[in-house]
Amino acid sequence: MKKRYLLAPGPTPVPEEVLLAMARPIFHHRTDEFRTLFKRITQGLQYVIQTSAAVFTQVSSGSGAMEAAVVNVLSPGDKAIVVDGGYFGARFAEIARAYGAEVVLITIPWGEAVDADAVHQALKENPEAKAVYTTFCETSTGVVHDVKALGEVVRETDALLVIDAISGLGTVELRPDDWGIDIVVAGSQKALMIPPGLAFLSVSDKAWKVIEANKSHRYYFDLLEAKERLKSWDSRFTPALSLVAALDRSLGLIKEEGIENVWARHGMLGRACRAGAQALGLELFARRPADGLTAVCMPEGIDAYEVYKRLLEEYGVTVGTGHTRIRNRVIRLAHLGYAGRFDVILGLAALEMVLKEMGADIERGKGVAAAEEIFAGARDNRDR
Amino acid sequence: MKKRYLLAPGPTPVPEEVLLAMARPIFHHRTDEFRTLFKRITQGLQYVIQTSAAVFTQVSSGSGAMEAAVVNVLSPGDKAIVVDGGYFGARFAEIARAYGAEVVLITIPWGEAVDADAVHQALKENPEAKAVYTTFCETSTGVVHDVKALGEVVRETDALLVIDAISGLGTVELRPDDWGIDIVVAGSQKALMIPPGLAFLSVSDKAWKVIEANKSHRYYFDLLEAKERLKSWDSRFTPALSLVAALDRSLGLIKEEGIENVWARHGMLGRACRAGAQALGLELFARRPADGLTAVCMPEGIDAYEVYKRLLEEYGVTVGTGHTRIRNRVIRLAHLGYAGRFDVILGLAALEMVLKEMGADIERGKGVAAAEEIFAGARDNRDR
Predict the structure, then answer these.
(1) DSSP character for A329?
(2) How far apart are CA B325 and CA B361, in angstroms?
């Protein structure tokens, strides 16, 4: 027997009761039974996203919802401003270019957060830009961008603010309606605690005006058609029923905990993981760290990819590797979704063991102790 | 308690052991463990499709794979020939037009199968057509088209033959490599016996040449990128892991039964359902009926939609309604995927009961008896 521990920033562990909800016998989707369910999950998603805007559920990976946020907004030749501060920020630029849009890149060094002034400047220089695209939590670097500050800048213009909240949603405060965020993109396999296969978008009134005027080629990801069908709580295409049943259960868990408490829990886990890493003398990769995952730089002379492999093969612990250019420098510990205090502790303990084996100059137990300190000091330190 | 029976042509019932396979704890997809699984399901799909061509698995409903078969083949302004003999045939035309292609329609009356001569003629008149799109089994009418005959016509030209086999695959003989079929589109929630959420495409060498030369805008459904990733048995985007785990199990069941036996079983079920309906004096809607579902015309004066509702509400039996223009005339009984003799029998018995209630002139038990006759006479009448 080898017990396995999944500490990667997506797919994340799914609560056992949610996994079993998928074993529900298949039912038909053109029924009132399904419509009642679809309405409930749509309202549940509005609660998690904290929006009164319509939320769409589609069968795709998160990238499919990113594509929906591009093809419905941009036509070939349109200009878009894209914040590129990591592997996933760059994806918005890739998609926009694949559809013939002109991309104005705001490139920021990996590990840093975007400055709202840079977006303000880009909008001034490109007043015809249809939208600003950015990640919320950049999963590849562990940075959370200050999307509230970006909203203040973008809402003064005709441009839309589109955020990829795939790994950020449900880990840190997000209030799109108050903050001027027009489209929130989310995925199922992160803090929503269900397996991959569904993706979501919320769409503001300001965004609908752009979408309605946009004549780009689109079919599967067409939000106007989806909007029409959602009026009767119908899914346009056959929905992934088992995942919808799972989502219904996991949204119930989130509602029971309360979204503010979910944010607070992730806040506590993030602080504990960062404190633990720093107590081991390790540097954090993110200047503005997210609460759902922690990107940790490995000590000089230690290959991060080798650390990842040893954690996986010798301890059964799956963490995130560093993407591309930081593959040998960084590992990423997730504490995202169905995560509690002991997920952080086991990640730090495993890291201590592997680093010690590889000859790093660290003191056993010091990371874990620092995390324990944070838990002891948290106002409400239950896992809930 | 009300027992429920799902006799709709998709989503179809999923074997209990396959449902439970989805409760497997989530694992990470950038691992050798996943690659081994992905290789195995890809080879299993090649077996079910009976092709040596590459098969792609994407997270979408079946319509997403139809879109992939359009955007990778056609550029705006390209011409495509589309066989429109029902609700789903028309969808290929919708998608092609949404992407700016010029569509040459071969419209055939609902309930009839396409004539290969009509396709031959259309190709002669439109030699620049990039592809011929057709359904294999048209789910809305219960017709199975003779795609072997179409292949003989299309293979003599530069055009590709693309078939939507979403509800046809695994119910009747299909040999794309021998028959000159270039792209086979399939979905997960029919004879593959898993829940909706995955879709598949096989792509011939002839098709790759067209796809490589095509510069249309595409990203999520880009098959060239998917092909590149499949070389190392990787999924381009986060795959729907639970559904992949389920598919692994259901492909095992299909392999164990043997694809020829799966076809034979559906053949027997189709014959029995048709014999039962006809013994009740009911007309079949399809001139060339499929084996995975039977579209049955209701007697004069009986509203088919009312029959559908009574079956659902009073007997817990979900059948397919007639689409759009045949909604009040036809119901569709599926015997598709995880289906055996008693699914046909219960469908016929329920139909007898409802029709009798509604005052139709039928004799109780006559439909069931006719089905029993077919089962008794089948060379191999086990459900397996």
Answers:
(1) T
(2) 25
> What predicted TM-score, i.e. pTM, was given to this entire model?
0.94
Residues of chain B with pLDDT under 50: 381, 383-384
* Burial (CB count within 10 angstroms: exposed 0-12, middle 13-18, buried 19+), residue B271: buried
Return the pLDDT at B383: 47
In chain B, residues with a C-beta closer than 8 Å to the C-beta of A222 are 98
CA atoms of B86 and B69, how far apart (whole Å): 19
- Joined tokens for residue A226: 């989806």
Residues within 8 A of A (CB atoms), B 169-208 only:
187, 189, 195-197
Residue B223 has which token pair?
Answer: 């098959």
Mean pLDDT, rounded, of chain A: 96
Least Cα distance to A87 among A302, A277, A285 occurs for A285
Q: With cut-offs at 50, 70 and 90, classify the pLDDT of residue A227.
A: very high
A26-75: pLDDT as tens digits: 999 999 999 999 999 999 999 999 999 999 999 999 999 999 999 999 99
Q: What is the reported pLDDT for B128?
A: 98
List, in order of start, the domains of chain B with CATH numbers.
Answer: 16-256 (3.40.640.10), 259-377 (3.90.1150.10)
Q: Distance between CA atoms of B78 and B70, rounded to whole angstroms?
A: 11
Both tokens of A34, joined, read 């399904």
Q: In what order do the strands lie in the sheet with B293-297?
A: B5-7, B317-321, B330-334, B293-297
Reference A202, options A77, A48, A37; nearest CA is A48
Written as six digits, the tokens of A170 are: 């449900």
Nearest residue to B76 (alpha-carbon basis) of B91, B89, B95? B95
Contact B285, B330 (CB under 8 A): yes
Assigned token pair, A338: 């169905």
Return the number of other C-beta atoms located less than 10 Å from residue B312's C-beta.
20
Whether A100 and chain B come into contact, CB under 8 Å, resolves to yes
Please list the residues that pair with A205 across neighbouring strands.
Answer: none
| Confidence grade of residue A384 (pLDDT, cut at 50, 70, 90) | very low
Q: How far is B196 from A344, CA to CA, in rounded Å? A: 35
Distance CA B206, CA A158 (A): 46
Helices (H), A139-258: 147-154, 176-179, 205-213, 223-230, 241-257
Residue A381 has pLDDT above 60, yes or no: no
**For residues A322 and A139, is the Cβ–Cβ distance under 8 A?**
no
- Of chain A residues 34-63, which have a CB less than 8 A from chain B? 59-63
Q: How far apart are CA B94 and CA A75, in angstroms?
A: 19
Q: What is the pLDDT of residues A119-128, one digit of tens each?
A: 999 999 999 9
**3-state secondary structure at position A20:** helix
Closest residue to B26, CB basis, from A6, A95, A238:
A6
